Amino acid sequence: MKKRIAVLGSTGSIGQQTLDVVRSFPDEFSIVALAAGQNTDLLSRQIAEFKPAFVYCQNGKDLLPDTGYKLLPMEEIACHSQVDIVLAATSGKAGLSAVMSAVTAGKTIALANKESLVMTGEIITRVASKTRARILPVDSEHSAIWQCLNGERQEPSRIILTASGGPFHNFSAGQLSRVTPEQALKHPSWQMGKKITIDSATLMNKGLEVIEAHWLFEAPFDNINVLIHPQSIIHSMVEFVDGSIKAQMSCPDMRLPIQYALSYPNRLPNPQLHRIEWNRIDKLTFEQPDFDTFPCLKLAIEAGRKGGTYPAVLCAADEEAVEMFLSGRIKFNNIADCVERALEQHQAIAHPGMEDVMESDERGRQSVREFVRESQC
Amino acid sequence: MKKRIAVLGSTGSIGQQTLDVVRSFPDEFSIVALAAGQNTDLLSRQIAEFKPAFVYCQNGKDLLPDTGYKLLPMEEIACHSQVDIVLAATSGKAGLSAVMSAVTAGKTIALANKESLVMTGEIITRVASKTRARILPVDSEHSAIWQCLNGERQEPSRIILTASGGPFHNFSAGQLSRVTPEQALKHPSWQMGKKITIDSATLMNKGLEVIEAHWLFEAPFDNINVLIHPQSIIHSMVEFVDGSIKAQMSCPDMRLPIQYALSYPNRLPNPQLHRIEWNRIDKLTFEQPDFDTFPCLKLAIEAGRKGGTYPAVLCAADEEAVEMFLSGRIKFNNIADCVERALEQHQAIAHPGMEDVMESDERGRQSVREFVRESQC
């Protein structure tokens, strides 16, 4: 039996790589649904190739050629009985309600949209434990942790999230203030979407991953460390109570964690995924992160520790601030200032419902917009 | 219920460290039997401390104070109904028949004596598959592989055995010929017995480990690679069909793999085992092994591939040659010459029984003795 997959965010970087994996294993996987936002051209081509039963397009039906599919909202696709795995790869807040719909329906969700867990981790994990929905990580770091935990009976004593350090590793605060969007969009190891590439440069992405790891692996924040590892070969590590550490490694290629989430608990041979050639590896190095120069990492971990609606504000403020940086309205180091301001202003709710999260999201964005307006007056 | 452990080779390096682990977990483990060779003083103290029900002493009963234990041959201890785990840590050929006895009785064997598997791997694994005896590795490398395979459903596509390279890493053949026993007994990362320390210096130990891995994990020789990793932090790695690699790491301390074999499938918190401090790790590096300068590695892998009685001759010739090197009769680089000569002279038996193995062992030693005599004439 083929696994029937719905790809939410099929025209984004993760979505396209997911379809690439599916292409490699036509006997294992079939695409039953595709959902995308703006890129109607690419979505049309994907529909022609994969002939999904269901389609969602933010830009509306009229832009798409009808080749027999049915248009459905993402929320309906995510919980549809014909879907075995929901690959959630919409960026930012866009996929949140679809993920909630999948979790409520007890689906298996391959989760690339980290904002869902960061913003609504408490709600999602509570519902998932009732519906027995399974959330499988697609992020390379969380996939690494998940692979390392495979077969272990006990909780890890420590999770070590590795980080490349991004394109501005070892930059000073002064240098960071002069960074352009073009520079920030060049990641040393990974090809990714714009938002996550900027988040990688500020280390906000690593902070969001700490919160994601907290929810995915039920790990206290004190047991999650971040370690800079510029070569991006070790994708994360887990330490156990006896001091033994397991690490997962590979050449940096998102198709591996995507494929693992789809093929789990099996692994599939994929010649397209390059093997590590050890004679080409000069050395693996490790450094402690610089929380002062990269305050987003600290802000994110603090927001995660405080919990409640703080992480939702963190995400929203960051999304807003990154957009402003990309459109040239603020400097690179102002991203952290914006997020910090939004968090300071936030009046948090301890155990929020979805509506509280949505309101906090809106307030977080507003804080950033106001702050930028004020600062530029 | 405490696990009841028989320690064969209790006065050796692995034996002493096993007792150290047992000391740390009096509620988990009890010592029901101790077996040792020459070191009667230490064995007496161990008996007084652990009060085992059974004792074996190569030097005979009269040298030991009787404090209520029963003297039994190692073979009887190894299959005794009161023993849950046999920790087999006698060095060289000495523990072979005890290991066979344990395997025949369907025991769980924590195997530190790699010669057993190297010499009689075919026999042991055949019997073990019938009696359902479990062979758990204690070698740090094989423990690493075992930990990495935990929870995986499929065979690994590649096993990467790491090697520190020993104290003479990067030595030339000329430098190696002038090496003294004192120099060879100083291993850069591990505290071990004499035989295995010399085997580490010649890389014979890594060759024996390749053969051991072949039998333990049913891996074809083509899928087992050796990788020099001088820092001895990564204890081995496993690559899967999707290109994902898992590595196990820790500070070099044999108590960790010993403890893991005893506590498996659980892990136990042991404050005596140091944690890796990542800010103290400068870098991890990797090199391909130099088969020409360290011919023992090549000889061992070839003997493993040929199979039959070749690995028994390899082990025996090496044991004899190492003794001769330690007693000053041959040079360091002659160890490989001796082993090569013994293998060349050997008329192998394809699917040997225990007697064939024992005969090959004797012939291997004889070859070395003759060769050394001839060379010095």
Describe the structure.
- Chain A has 377 residues and is an alpha/beta fold.
- Among the domains of chain A are: 3-137, NAD(P)-binding Rossmann-like Domain (Rossmann fold), CATH 3.40.50; 307-377, Rna Polymerase Sigma Factor, Chain: A (Orthogonal Bundle).
- Helices cover 45% and strands 14% of the residues of chain A.
- Chain A has 15 helices and 11 strands.
- The first copy, chain A, has a 7-stranded parallel β-sheet with strand order 4-3-2-1-5-6-7, sandwiched between helices.
- In chain A, helix 4 (96-104) runs parallel beside helix 5, helix 12 packs parallel to helix 14 (334-345) and helix 13 crosses helix 15.
- The longest helix of chain A has 23 residues, at 354-376.
- The radius of gyration of chain A is 20 Å and the shape is globular.
- The N and C termini of chain A lie far apart (62 Å).
- The mean pLDDT of chain A is 94.
- Chains A and B meet through strand 10, strand 11 and helix 11 of A and strand 10, strand 11 and helix 11 of B.
- Strand 11 (245-249) of chain A pairs antiparallel with strand 11 of chain B.
